[in-house]
Amino acid sequence: MSYNMMEDVERILISEAELAQRVKELGAQITADYTGKEILMIGILRGAVLFMSDLMRAISLPVSLDFMAVSSYGVSTTSSGVVRIMKDLDENAENKHVLIVEDIIDSGLTLNYLVDNLKSRRPASVKICTLLSKPDRRKAEVQIAYNGFTIPDYFVVGYGLDFAEKYRNFPFIGVLKPSVYQSAKQSAKI
Ligand SMILES: O=P(O)(O)OC[C@H]1O[C@H](OP(=O)(O)OP(=O)(O)O)[C@H](O)[C@@H]1O
Ligand SMILES: Nc1nc2[nH]cnc2c(=O)[nH]1
Fold this sequence. Notes:
By secondary structure, the chain is α/β, with parallel strands linked by helices. It has helices at residues 16-33, 49-57, 109-119, 178-188, and strands at residues 9-14, 39-45, 63-72, 83-87, 97-105, 125-133, 146-150, 156-157, 173-176. It has four helices and nine strands, in the order βαβαβββαββββα. Helix 1 (16-33) crosses helix 2. The site of guanine has 8 residues, from strand 8.
């Protein structure tokens, strides 16, 4: 029998249509705020990729792309605050208008580190655009210029966000059934 990933979903938190509408609004707002400027979008791998590819098409200004990959030590679903750069920028960010694109800000530890790191490269400006923010879990302060949705403290998947590398290709943001997390934890002994 074929496995249907939808069977793992408890509920859809943000639908595909709601995501598309909000991405359009963010793109329009960013276009207005950066008029006359070029944007260097820095996507944080891997989760931000879907959001970034839709967002850039909603911006009608010159946009160039670069990517960083970071890893934080610690248990699987929480950030420890110790951030390691696994892939650095390919381009120089100096004098550029940097827009960091993230899928989610949870504890804020990853972005807190990344903003400081990018500021040290003397860009013209640094701002954050995140699809999701979970303020209830914040441990480090982060200035968010553009936020798609503020969500409660649920572990969410879809539209780039994974659980154990799965579910990134859902076109919506959803919450998995508790049994999915439990069985994954048991088999991985985490
Ligand atoms: O605010 P924080 O508590 O620091 O958490 C947010 C970070 O966690 C997620 O990345 P993850 O490590 O899951 O990597 P991924 O994008 O490759 O899935 C997310 O994309 C952020 O980078
Ligand atoms: N997939 C996923 N990754 C996260 N990283 C921090 N919070 C979350 C979350 O809710 N879902």
